[in-house]
């Protein structure tokens, strides 16, 4: 016989709490790891040929998803698709420039033709073609950066969001940046685009919660990829960044995967409209100050 659970409450409240606690024990019996499984789900990941997108695509496949992969260069995608196939999951490499709406439409159609639906969308493909003063940026820099980082995220989310609404739910994960929270030095247009991604996340989450579509973002700090090579291969910038980061180092692409899987799975079932900052403590670091205190210099 089930032992009586004492809630410390009387009467009706006591019974309600008892039932609640029994239900809770039921939930506790199913493994927490099951809530991280995305077995049988279909994911679409942009910018999946290298860097953060590749790491996330491989991570989602390892957690059980079939994955549609996109970037502009098909041979690079085919290599990632092969890695996924070796895990026993299906992969669909589709070449697309997500700055262009007809290519977004084709990407979504190809994915649905292959897999029937889309459960998880990861908007990851991003660019920052120029560094410098805002005085020097031209119209093309604005159009290319906003065109991919914000317009691309918006219209792909819109296309996939309609499917998710009709399929009774889904998860969208937007890769933002810490530069969207406070401006990256010399990265003005990029920072504006990433601030837009954070607001896009909140707007979509608010409107689409009623359809069981959750929308969240990840804001990484400096991650060692080709995209950021100009920064981390510069010894002065690297040292400065590491010194102002609580963990004292840059991130590897694989360190973004855990948060992506959390957001893609039932483990985050009550979370929407949020941005997870993954910056090794860059945002709040007092590391340099602490070392000054401890050495007395
Ligand atoms: N690395 C960092 O330090 C860092 C920090 C914060 C946020 N982020 C964000 O993380 C995301 C991924 O960056 P990453 O560092 O992994 O970059 P990455 O290594 O340069 O990879 C970028 C990916 O996007 C694809 N891509 C670029 N332009 C595209 C387009 N127009 N259409 C479709 N795909 C396109 C690239 O493939 P193709 O060239 O073949 O198209 C590649 O697969 C970006 O949104 C970036 O802003 C990065």
**Would you report the number of β strands?**
7
- Major sheet attributes: 7 strands, parallel
Biggest sheet strand order reads 3-2-1-4-5-6-7
Overall geometry: globular
Summing up helix and strand content along with how strands pair, one would put the structural category as alpha/beta
What would a concise description of this structure say?
With 297 residues, the protein is α/β, with parallel strands linked by helices.
Q: Could you please describe the fold and organization of this structure?
A:
By secondary structure, the protein is α/β, with parallel strands linked by helices. The chain has a single domain, classed as NAD(P)-binding Rossmann-like Domain (Rossmann fold, 3-Layer(aba) Sandwich), CATH 3.40.50.720. It contains ten helices and seven strands. The chain has a seven-stranded parallel β-sheet with strand order 3-2-1-4-5-6-7, sandwiched between helices. Strand 5, helix 6 (188-208) and strand 6 (213-220) form a beta-alpha-beta unit. Helix 2 (51-62) packs across helix 9 (257-264), helix 4 packs parallel to helix 5 and helix 5 runs parallel beside helix 6. It is globular and about 60 Å long. The model is unreliable at 1-23 (pLDDT under 50). The structure holds NADP nicotinamide-adenine-dinucleotide phosphate. NADP nicotinamide-adenine-dinucleotide phosphate binds at residues 46-53, 71-73, 76, 97-99, 124-127, 148, 175, 177, 220, 222-223, 225-228.
């Amino acid at each position: 016989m089930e032992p009586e659970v004492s809630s410390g409450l009387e009467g009706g409240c006591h019974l309600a709490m008892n039932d609640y606690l029994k239900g809770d024990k039921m939930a506790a019996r199913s493994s927490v790891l099951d809530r991280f499984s995305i077995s049988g789900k279909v994911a679409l990941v942009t910018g999946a040929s290298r860097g953060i997108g590749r790491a996330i695509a491989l991570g989602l496949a390892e957690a059980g998803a079939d994955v549609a992969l996109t970037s502009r260069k098909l041979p690079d995608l085919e290599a990632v698709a092969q890695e996924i196939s070796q895990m026993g999951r299906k992969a669909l490499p589709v070449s697309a420039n997500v700055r262009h709406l007809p290519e977004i439409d084709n990407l979504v159609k190809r994915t649905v033709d292959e897999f029937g639906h889309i459960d998880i969308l990861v908007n990851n493909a991003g660019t920052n073609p120029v560094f410098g003063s805002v005085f020097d940026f031209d119209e093309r820099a604005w159009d290319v950066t906003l065109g991919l980082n914000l317009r691309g995220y918006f219209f792909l989310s819109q296309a996939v969001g309609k499917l998710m609404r009709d399929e009774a739910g889904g998860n969208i994960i937007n890769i933002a940046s810490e530069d969207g929270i406070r401006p990256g030095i010399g990265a003005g247009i990029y920072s504006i685009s990433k601030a837009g991604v954070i607001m896009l996340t909140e707007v979509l989450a608010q409107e689409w919660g009623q359809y069981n579509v959750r929308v969240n973002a990840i804001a990484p700090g400096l991650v060692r990829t080709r995209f950021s090579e100009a920064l981390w291969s510069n010894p002065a910038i690297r040292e400065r960044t590491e010194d102002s980061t609580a963990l004292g180092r840059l991130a590897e692409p694989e360190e973004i995967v855990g948060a992506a899987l959390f957001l893609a799975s039932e483990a985050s079932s009550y979370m929407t409209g949020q941005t997870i900052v993954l910056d090794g403590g860059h945002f709040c670091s007092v590391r340099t100050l602490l070392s000054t205190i401890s050495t007395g210099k």
